[in-house]
Sequence to fold (132 residues):
Amino acid sequence: MQLKALIVEDDPILQILHQKILTTLSIDSVIASTGDEAIEALKNLQLDFILMDVNMPVQDGLDASRWIRDEKDLKNRDILIFALTSFTTPEHTKEILEAGMNEHLKKPLDSEELKKLLTKYFWSKNPPQQDT
Fold:
């Protein structure tokens, strides 16, 4: 199964890092720098999941996730959204889940943690071999 992800991240260095991690897992990805760009990408592309930065200027990941979940005309509004944030308090996790995100990943993104989530949702029987 070839997966395609949307990376929503305003930091160019982290965009590159996250894209490289996905590539090692044989996952295609596209990048959006803002919540607004993420929404446009979701309207126009076939995607399997989103890695969503929580803290971004203009429209943060929480607002973008709420919009995605609430938009009745969006056919893939149930897409998996994995929050990316350096904040890991129980209160912050609660806020992330209430915004409609499915899971919470700590920044910087750890490839093994991501692989566990992808195995849970997509690869329960046959995870892909990592590129080296």
